[in-house]
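Hi everyone,

Forwarding the result from last night's run.
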Amino acid sequence: MDDKKNIADRVRQIVAEVLDEPVSAMDANPVLAAHEWDSRVSLEALAQLEAAFVVTVDLRSFHAARTVNDLVDLVIRSQPTPTR
């Protein structure tokens, strides 16, 4: 659970930085369209999320994300499954 919280915190931070807004703005309204979420911002967020978490995010799923929480879930799903 702690990992999910850490991932969520980092995703919110990345999205806020790309939007040039405080993280509190993401908490107050996590709907991406409520901010200046355009194609340039979304591509920058995608690149930063992939770099920060060392994942490859499915582009269709990324474009289907509507909230910051959707992005958190997407990053979590994109992480490699640990092998035993």
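The mean pLDDT is 93.

Cheers,
N.
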